[in-house]
Amino acid sequence: MGNRLYRLLFGTLLLIALYFGLHQLIYFLVSLTVFEAVTNLRIPLLIARLRGVDNPDPDEGSLGINFHTRSSFEAERGWRLLVATMLAVSVFIFPGPLWFLPWFMGFAILGAGVSGVCPMFLALKWAGLR
User: Fold this and answer.
1) CA–CA–CA angle 16, 17, 20 (5° rounding)
2) Which of these, 68, 83, 71, 85, lies nearest to 6 by C-alpha position?
3) Residue 50: exposed, middle, or buried by beta-carbon count in 10 A (0-12, 13-18, 19+)?
4) Mind listing the pLDDT tens digit for each residue in 10-35?
5) Where are the membrane-spanning stretches (predicted)?
């Protein structure tokens, strides 16, 4: 499982949770992304290690662009922190005024899973994250 398939599944689960009003699933997705970002025990990495692959493609999702890294913090971890923060704020803290944000995120993450191109991930790489 690569990051592309992870994003496809994450976006699908998020849209299902939003459509059916499953707040427990949204809590789970937020807590999963926070856990993965803090511990760096990401599901795609764990599955790759179980399959015997030591280092899956580190440039996956960067479109072959060589970004200048200014920080040792990984862009995948930053992506997960941003997703968890934006979901928690828009769904649990300000659900009225920001009702469109989780839907936008769900479709954007689903699109990133389908196409393999995530604009937020590319922006984090451009900002200097590893």
Assistant:
1) 80
2) 83
3) exposed
4) 999 999 999 999 999 999 999 999 99
5) 6-35, 78-94, 100-124
Q: What is the CA radius of gyration of the chain?
A: 15
DSSP H or E stretch at residue 65: none
Q: Which amino acid is at 2?
A: G
pLDDT in tens, 27-82: 999 999 999 999 989 998 888 888 888 766 666 777 778 888 899 899 999 999 99
69 vs 13: CA distance, rounded Å: 32
CA distance readout (Å), 15 to 37, 58, 103, 104: 21, 28, 7, 9
Q: Which two tokens stand for residue 89?
A: 């704020």
Q: Give the torsion through C-alpha atoms of 15, 119, 76, 50, to 10 deg.
A: 70
The pTM for the full model equals: 0.90
